[in-house]
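tmp note - Prephenate dehydrogenase
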Amino acid sequence: MTTKTRLSGTVRIVGAGLLGASIGHALTAKGVDVALADTSPAQLRLAIDYGAGRAAREDDAPALVVVAVPPDVTADVIEAELARFPEAVVTDVASVKLEPLRTLRERGVDLTRYIGSHPLAGRERGGAISARADIFIGRPWVVCRDEETRPADLALVEGLALDLEAMPLEMTPEEHDRAVALTSHVPQVVSSLLAARLADADDGSLRLAGQGVRDTTRIAASAPELWVQILGANSAPVVAVLDALAGDLAEVADALRDPERAGSRRTVAETIRHGNEGVERLPGKHGQNRRFESFVVMIDDTPGQLGRLFGELGELEVNVEDLRLEHSPGAQFGLAEISVTPAAVRGAVEGLEARGWRIASMPDD
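out:
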C-alpha cells in the first residue's frame, strides 16, 4: 500500500550507506521510484536486497538527486551529478555544509540547482544493513537555501524532508555548521575522550558502571573513519567550542585541587547549575522545553515484564515521556526509569504499587 507523497518521478540516491539507504527505504515504502548508485557494488547490492530501491540505469531522468556520500567526496559527487543531470535538483545530506559549498564555488560550478541539506538523524552503526525508514520521523532536516534558490527547487527538497516525516528548517551553511559543532560534533569528541578512559580501567571499576557513564559514552561507538572527515571539515567551529570547554574544565580542576579554598565550592556549584540550565533548554517531546520527573521501577529479568509495565501504565492513563533501562551485572532484575509530567507521578506510582510493582526511587529520593 502506497501513501500520497509530495515527490513524483524518480529520485536518484548516490551513496547506499546508512542515510542513503534509509531515505531509499522510506521513499520506496511510499511508492516513489528510487534509483540507487554506489561506488561499492557490494554495498549497492546489499541496499537493493534489503529493499531500499533499484539499481540506477543509464536512461534514468531523476527530478531529484540526493548525494549521501562521505564528506571528503561530497563536493566531487555534487559537481558530477549537476553535470550529468542538467534538469535535476541536487541536494546532499552531509553533516557539514560550508566546506563542500566553498569547494564548489572555488571550482566555478553553477550552483543554481544545488540546495544543501542535512537530516539530523542517524545511528551509531553505519552501512546499508543498519538502514531504517523511520530514523527521520520527527527529526529536524536543515535546508540551506540562498538568493539564487528557485521556489520550485526549494519545494522539492523540503518535500523530500516532509515525505520522510522530518521537520524542514532553513539555516545558512554558517549557522548550520556552528550549530552542529556544539550539538553534535563536540559531544562526539567528549564522549570518545571519556570512553577512552575506560579502555585501560580495571574490571572492578567497570563493574560499578551505571547509567550515567553509559549515557555519556553511548555515541563513542561511532566510526572513526567518518568522524575524521566530519571533524576535519568543520574544524574551526569545533575548535572554538573545544577551547571554551577546555577553559571550563581547567577552572573546575583548579577548584577541586583545593576544595577548601575560598570560592572553590561556588565554582563547582555554578558549573553544575549552569549545566542544569543548559539541559532545560534542550527541546523535549514535540520540541517543547518541558521538565519531566522520573521514578524507577524494578522489573524482573523475564520475558514480557516490560510490556506488562507499559500496559498497566496505559490502563492508569499515564503518558510515558521517556524511558531508560539499566541492568546491573549479575542481577536478575532491571531498573526502568520512567519520565512523566510532574502531575502524573503520584498517580502512576500509587497505581503501579497497587498492582504489585516495586518502586526503587522517587523524584524526591
